[in-house]
């Protein structure tokens, strides 16, 4: 980030001013300074409004008492929990074994299933950072070949969808999120979008500093998509490999028991259609055998 760049007022919560291309709460090497308030961000794990399901969550079972979740699968609803001083874990199904939270709140996995992918939370965090002035932060999501999970990738700097910069901790998959619903920045399963933004700034301050800047065209598109899809749906920038490019942006549900999206069609990101050329089917290659020709040698008249 060049010197003299104007920083929006709302961006002061994450990046107050520039110091050699790094946030003001970083030293010249890009590391979080010891005096920085970013070191004292609390990790909200089990808030009063959201009750996450993750390894470490305290539960209650009427036959076993209080226990702790050791393993969880948000896609199938099976968990492994340890109760009391037992050495072995017990496998339970959240749909049929009447498992409750520690305060007695029932876990209704079928009626209110949790998010099986982090894309909605990432969209809320990116929107929060866009409003704070970090409009050069982009979210790329696409399905895995199996079709069961969707990958995600955050990148900052120039908006280049093809040659995206890969930074450690800025990408993941719903397959990993099912077993541990965290993003890997020291966050908890119930961290708010503001908390995720602070933790990302603490995890990689140099990477987030590159996102500070204006891209109003993309920010307006992202605001429209978030207002239309959240909190039950997310967008995907990938489609079936054997089919042509859809006319509108693909929409995916982030949890089970969500009806099919019937809202208004959404456009693709700005500049996305210019990356793909629409063409017809490739012509069939037909083997053409060589034609046998007969060359006759005729005498030429001599002078």
Description:
The chain is of the alpha+beta class and 303 residues long. The chain has 2 domains: 190 residues, no CATH class; 44 residues. A 5-stranded antiparallel beta sheet has the order 6-5-4-3-7, with no helix packed on it. Strands 8-9-10 form a 3-stranded antiparallel beta sheet. Helix 1 packs across helix 3. The radius of gyration is 27 Å and the shape is extended. The N terminus is likely disordered.
Keywords for this structure?
303 residues; alpha+beta; 2 domains; three-stranded antiparallel beta sheet; 12 strands; 17% strand; disordered N terminus
H-E order: EEEEEEEHEEEHHHHEE
Number of domains: 2
Poorly predicted parts: 1-7, 15-49
Strand order of the largest sheet: 6-5-4-3-7
- How many beta-strand runs? 12
Question: Which range best describes the helical content: under 10%, 10-25%, 25-40%, 40-55%, 55-70% or over 70%?
Answer: 10-25%
H/I helix tally = 5
| Main beta-sheet strand count, sense and barrel state | 5 strands, antiparallel
Q: What is the alpha-carbon Rg in Å?
A: 27 Å
How much of the sequence lies in strands comes to 15-25%
Q: Note the gap between the termini.
A: 86 Å
Give the CA-based shape: extended
Output mean pLDDT: 80
Supply the helix-strand structural class. Answer: alpha+beta
